[in-house]
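Researcher: Quick test of sequence recovery. Tokens follow.
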């Protein structure tokens, strides 16, 4: 299993904020404002919806394509880290807020937003590879 942030902090003898900062620096991540975060997520979700809306499920080809998209998406979600899968599941299936997810996972709302954006970025990049598309709207989703 992946260690929790608290376990990592304890082992390294550092506080949680320092741990998050170091992890962000190590991953090349950047802090973004909440407005930028929502814009980023809206863009990724919009691209996925746009892609799905272009499929006509009333045709045999469309039905096959919808099934393929669902299978690919399920496979890609399975490939996320445990923590990313938890956040995506709680957010989209349980419809919990970032704050509620943070309480459940014992992490800050800010950390939940980072994990959520990172998971969506990974999914979008993987879907681009799976579909062989390189939309100008979807250049780089890593946070």
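Model:
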């Amino acid at each position: 299993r992946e260690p929790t942030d608290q376990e990592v902090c304890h082992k390294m003898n550092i506080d949680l904020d320092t741990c998050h900062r170091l992890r962000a620096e190590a991953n090349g991540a950047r802090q973004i404002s909440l407005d930028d975060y929502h814009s980023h997520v809206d863009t990724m979700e919009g691209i996925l919806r746009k892609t799905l809306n272009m499929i006509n499920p009333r045709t045999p080809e469309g039905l096959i394509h919808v099934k393929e998209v669902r299978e690919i998406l399920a496979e890609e979600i399975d490939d996320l880290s445990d923590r990313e899968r938890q956040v995506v599941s709680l957010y989209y299936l349980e419809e919990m807020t970032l704050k509620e997810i943070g309480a459940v996972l014992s992490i800050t709302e800010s950390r939940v937003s980072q994990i959520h954006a990172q998971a969506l970025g990974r999914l979008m990049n993987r879907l681009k590879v799976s579909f062989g598309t390189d939309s100008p709207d979807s250049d780089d989703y890593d946070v």
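The first helix runs from residue 5 to 12.
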